[in-house]
Amino acid sequence: MNEYKIYELKAGLKLHHIKTDKFKTVSVGLHFHRPLRYEEASKNALLTDVMRRGNQKLQDAASVSRYLQALYGAAFHADVRRKGEDQILSYVVSTVADSYLPEKEATTFQAVSFLYDMVLCPLVENGAFRQDYVEQEKVNLINDIKAQINDKRAYAVWRLVEEMCKNEPYSIYELGRVSDVEAITPESLYAQYLTVLHESPIDIFVTGDADIDRVIDLTKKRFAEVTPKVTEYPKSTLHSAADEVRELVETYDVSQAKLSIGFYTGITPVDDEYSALMVYNSIFGSGAHSKLFNHVREKLSLCYYASSRLERYKGMMVVSSGIEYQNKEKAETEILAQAEAMRQGDISDYEFDVSVKSIVNSLRSLGDTGGYMADYYLGQAVSGTSISLEEQCELIQKVTKDDVIRVAQRIKPELVYVMKGQEAE
After folding, report:
1. Which residues pair with 316 in a beta bridge?
2. What is the DSSP letter of 266?
3. Beta strand ranges found along 252-355 (DSSP E)
4. 8 Å CB contact between 109 and 214
5. Is 358 within 8 Å of 282 (Cβ atoms)?
6. 193, 44 in Cβ contact below 8 A?
7. How much is the pLDDT for 135?
């Protein structure tokens, strides 16, 4: 049985406890929320890379690794991601729950203390991060940014989103730009750390069977001097619908062309229609039961793959497909025809029923993994909603076919993006 509680320790600092005895581990994640913008995106990405290398007590990766091994093989990782236009710096430690250890050792308390040391006591020398760590991680981050283009399927979708949201923060890659990374110094990175620490809303998620009162007491003591000046999460602006459908064709070194289509939905998680939109997306292109899979891919063989996903914080939907370039017009026509079919109410009982069950099963499966469960509730916090997993399942099960058809009326194509190979010139 899961129990979810939120403790507001002070303005801008919340501790979330997902109490469950389903897992033998306890996971504790600390998340800073920053507005997604060019002037700090790369700094935030580099921060997590540099800070995971060590702290004032454990000054290198080897020392960190030995300490974690002594905590029965505890694990620690740090990274950045985005939810809408919120760039989130995450530091997460997981360890064996105390109840499974000899004489119920207080490993959870030690793991949380370690996490707070990593975040609050970074390895700093003379008002700057270590020069060698910064330079090494800059090289790694630059390589990661450049490697984005290597996965052409994902990169085609990114280019579509980037173009749809041009001049919006949502078009900023969460790792930033190479030129911005190159300009970072150990001093400027430490200045960014202080900004993040003192000017960001903070969420701490504890997932598992933990002595939450002891964790709260420790958190209050360790964060006594940290009072975030900014207490509201960065808000994502709803994408504005375009007046007409545009097309963008780009040439890359690919043997299989990519066709991506961006749709305006105008619906985000705070809207009552969001559950119906989830069902719409499932029927349209999410899974082997969907119209895109069965009609465009299987029946007509126009795509090697075809699927849709929601950009939930922006009110957008994206279709991704792999095609032979000569089939571009036919594939585009058939993808749009399936959207039109849904507007006309062409939804079978099978498509509807399987879609609802698929979503409910996917949601319930999140409860089988502590990290996924914490991420779900972190998303709820960011979007300004407070719907439990089970409540979301109930909302999905209440959706009717008429609800889906009404949602379908609001969805319209906006941008067609094509990635073609040199031979298609």
Report:
1. 264, 311
2. -
3. 257-264, 305-311, 316-323
4. yes
5. yes
6. no
7. 98
Give residue 16's pLDDT.
97
Residues 6 or more apart in contact with residue 213 via CB below 8 angstroms: none
The residue assigned the tokens 């073609």 is: 420
CA 98 – CA 26 distance, rounded (Å): 9
Q: pLDDT tens across 284-318, in order?
A: 999 999 999 999 999 999 999 999 999 999 999 99
Residues 6+ apart with CB under 8 A from 199: 228, 229, 230
Encode pLDDT of 192-248 as tens digits: 999 999 999 999 999 999 999 999 999 999 999 999 999 999 999 999 988 899 999
306 close to 296: Cβ distance less than 8 angstroms:
yes
Q: What is the pLDDT of residue 100?
A: 87
Please write down the long-range contacts of 147-152, taking CB distance under 8 Å and 24 or more positions apart.
148/173, 148/175, 149/252, 152/252, 152/254, 152/256, 152/258, 152/419
User: Do 84 and 313 contact (CB within 8 A), yes or no?
Assistant: yes
Q: What is the model's pTM?
A: 0.95
pLDDT less than 70: residues of the chain? 1, 104, 424-425
Exposure string of 221-246, with b = 16+ CB inside 10 Å and e = fewer, is ebbeeeebebeebbebebbeeeeeee
**Torsion angle in degrees (nearest 10) through CA of 152, 158, 159, 161:** 150
Residues 6+ apart with CB under 8 A from 232: 201
* Dist CA 169 CA 258 (whole Å): 25
Give the whole-angstrom CA distance, residue 187 versus residue 379: 32
374: which strand partners?
A: none
Closest CA to 302 of 263, 333, 343: 333
